[in-house]
């Protein structure tokens, strides 16, 4: 047999020829390779948050020799790298990360959002400062941001920490956008929101409130005077339905109603309030209406019989956060499902007297994937009403921005938020209605693109890691441990204290304990299985351990038994 052919056959069998001597040496092809993988929590987080990172830095603190204070500080810094609002999002985010968490296939998803709230409050209490990045700044370039909502402030933060001078133009009296003017205080205390906005301002971001772009300063002025412009005006313009009787007193859009309440304006809602819609705005409007009663104690006793939510599909199809729906039901808010408003009746003075409902049934699925509501001919119902709140949809108000040409109600952008207009980026609810966490992620990506282009290069996406699912984990290795539950004020206490925070979260001790439920999917957490099961003692402990790095493999003495790969519970080791 020729040498080349012999080498080829030996390679198939796992035998190699030593280069210098020509002697044979057994080396298995199944050798361990550390291969970090992407956990589903991070993939499903629109903000791009390194959730595994900030959970495990606390969970592994004893292995790394860190104090709880140091670990919690570091976890906060990991979190705010992509999201400057951990305390806010820990209260309002519907946490799609938990829906995908691999632990759900064992004993329930990790309470990621609850731990996020703990971290946010920790950062506020400790007066931690948002971290700057050393990327060559400070720079002479100035950037304008239109809108101080979650998307605009996220963009401003990411630019300021890189060394840019950022000015935010905000039409309302205070910054925050929908976080302040669309979310009730009982869900998001204003002191929490103000504290996290202040951290962004402390980086040097200037926020000019009561300044509407298009009135005094125009978009063209900003394009001329600034190196880049970000448009994040949000969708504060509510839509109505165009039904008879809609025009006149007693009818509000959901966004206008919440804006008025959150701005501290006096508002009379009467005793029979009907909210039309099934989203978060509808539920917020319903619960706020209940709290606006002139006799809170009496409302508490009645448990909200005067507030009704009207939705044209069933509860199953409601897009609102499920927990918010349940809390509304606990407070006594009534729901009329499979019903839509057909006409608003008014008395001789023009005041609303009743609402005519059209009964519906579900037909075939529409573009949203939900079954389309279809009117049942002749099936109508009249209910009492003196206030109607249309929380059916909302859109941006483009009336003052001039050069912006929306596609219908929305802007078209590329993957980095670039609009067709030179020097202009956009994100948030100017693109489509979505979650605050989506807006935060879009603001960050736009800032990264701006930074790259202002420095004369194209933005680059991070290399994609393979995703790891629960079928690659050894679920039985992890001990059973039930998920911690958030504390919620009882309904009577909620209504007796209308502005008090309803969701009390979890205790700091519970949050720290909950971090230990994270599987550390796809990244070493120092379990020592590879070291214990290796017969050849290939695995050596790192001289300086840290989360994700505890051991290394000496492949020169590996015989390819693949035990390390088989026994790695988190799927970090591959056999190649």
Characterization of the model:
With 576 residues, the chain is of the alpha/beta class. The chain is built from 21 helices and 23 strands. Strand 14 and strand 15 (371-384) form a beta hairpin. The longest helix is centred in the C-terminal third of the chain and has 19 residues, at 436-454.
Q: Main beta sheet: strand number and arrangement?
A: 5 strands, parallel
State the distance separating the first and last CA atoms: 29 Å
Instruction: Quote the beta fraction.
Output: 15-25%
Q: Over the alpha carbons, how many angstroms does the gyration radius reach?
A: 28 Å
- The average pLDDT is 91
Structural class assignment: alpha/beta
Question: How much helicity do the residues have?
Answer: 25-40%
Total count of strands: 23
SS summary, helix count? 21
Strand order of the largest sheet: 6-5-4-7-18
In short:
By secondary structure, this protein is of the alpha/beta class.
Comma- or semicolon-separated keywords:
single chain, 576 residues, alpha/beta, five-stranded parallel β-sheet, 31% helix
Task: Summarize the helices and strands and which ones pair or pack.
Layout: H1 3-13, E1 15-17, E2 24-26, E3 32-34, H2 40-43, H3 51-59, H4 61-64, H5 68-80, H6 86-92, H7 96-100, H8 112-125, E4 142-146, H9 150-160, E5 165-169, H10 178-181, H11 190-201, E6 206-208, H12 219-225, E7 228-231, E8 237-238, E9 251-253, H13 254-262, E10 273-276, H14 280-291, H15 296-302, E11 307-311, H16 322-330, E12 334-337, E13 339-346, E14 352-365, E15 371-384, E16 387-390, E17 394-395, E18 424-426, H17 436-454, E19 487-488, H18 491-496, E20 503-505, H19 508-515, H20 529-533, E21 539-546, E22 549-553, H21 563-567, E23 573-575
Helix pairs in contact: 3-5, 3-19, 5-8, 6-8, 8-19, 9-17, 13-14
């Amino acid at each position: 047999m020729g040498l080349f052919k012999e080498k080829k056959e030996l390679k198939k069998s796992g035998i190699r020829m030593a280069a210098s001597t020509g002697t044979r040496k057994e080396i298995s092809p199944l050798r361990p390779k550390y291969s970090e993988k992407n956990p589903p929590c991070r993939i499903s987080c629109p903000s791009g948050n390194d959730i595994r990172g900030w959970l495990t830095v606390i969970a592994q603190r004893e292995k790394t020799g860190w104090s709880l204070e140091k670990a919690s500080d570091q976890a906060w810094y990991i979190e705010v790298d992509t999201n400057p609002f951990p305390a806010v999002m820990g209260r309002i985010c519907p946490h799609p990360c938990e829906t995908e968490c691999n632990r759900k296939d064992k004993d329930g998803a990790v309470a990621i959002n609850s731990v996020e709230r703990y971290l946010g409050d920790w950062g506020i209490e400790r007066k931690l400062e948002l971290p700057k990045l050393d990327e060559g700044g400070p720079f002479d370039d100035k950037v304008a941001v239109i809108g101080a909502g979650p998307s605009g402030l996220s963009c401003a933060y990411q630019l300021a920490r890189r060394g840019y001078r950022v000015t935010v133009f905000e039409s309302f009296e205070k910054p925050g956008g929908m976080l302040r003017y669309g979310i009730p205080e009982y869900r998001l205390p204003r002191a929490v929101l103000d504290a996290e906005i202040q951290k962004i301002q402390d980086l040097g971001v200037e926020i000019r409130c009561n300044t509407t772009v298009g009135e005094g300063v125009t978009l063209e002025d900003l394009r001329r005077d600034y190196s880049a412009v970000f448009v994040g005006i949000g969708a504060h313009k509510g839509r109505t339905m165009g039904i008879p009787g809609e025009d006149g007193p007693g009818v509000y859009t959901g966004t206008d109603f919440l804006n008025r309440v959150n701005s501290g304006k006096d508002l009379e809602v009467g005793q029979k309030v009907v909210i039309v819609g099934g989203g978060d705005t509808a539920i917020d409007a319903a619960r706020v209406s209940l709290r606006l009663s002139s006799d809170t104690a009496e409302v508490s006793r009645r448990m909200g019989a005067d507030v009704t939510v009207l939705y044209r599909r069933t509860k199953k199809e409601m897009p609102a956060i499920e927990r918010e729906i349940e809390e509304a039901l606990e407070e006594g808010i009534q729901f009329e499902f499979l019903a839509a408003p057909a006409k608003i009746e008014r008395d001789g003075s023009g005041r609303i007297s009743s609402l005519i409902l059209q009964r519906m049934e579900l037909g075939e699925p529409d573009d949203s994937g939900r079954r389309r509501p279809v009117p049942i001919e002749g099936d109508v119902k009249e209910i009492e009403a003196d206030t109607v709140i249309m929380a059916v949809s909302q859109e941006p108000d483009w009336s003052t921005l001039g050069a912006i040409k929306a596609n219908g109600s929305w802007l078209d952008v590329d993957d980095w938020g670039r609009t067709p207009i030179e020097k202009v980026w956009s994100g948030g609810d100017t693109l489509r209605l979505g979650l605050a966490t989506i807006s935060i992620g879009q603001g960050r990506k736009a800032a990264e693109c701006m930074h790259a282009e202002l420095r004369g290069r194209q933005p680059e996406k991070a290399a994609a890691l393979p995703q790891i699912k629960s079928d690659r984990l050894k679920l039985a290795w992890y001990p059973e441990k039930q998920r911690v539950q958030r504390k919620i004020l009882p309904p009577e206490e909620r209504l007796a204290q209308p502005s008090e925070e309803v969701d009390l979260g979890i205790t700091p001790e519970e949050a720290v304990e909950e971090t230990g439920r994270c599987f550390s999917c796809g990244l070493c957490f120092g379990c020592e299985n590879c070291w214990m099961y290796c017969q050849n003692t290939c695995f050596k402990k790192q001289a300086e351990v840290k989360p994700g790095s505890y051991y290394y493999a000496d492949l020169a003495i590996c015989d390819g038994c693949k035990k390390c790969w088989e026994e790695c519970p988190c799927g970090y080791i591959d056999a190649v």
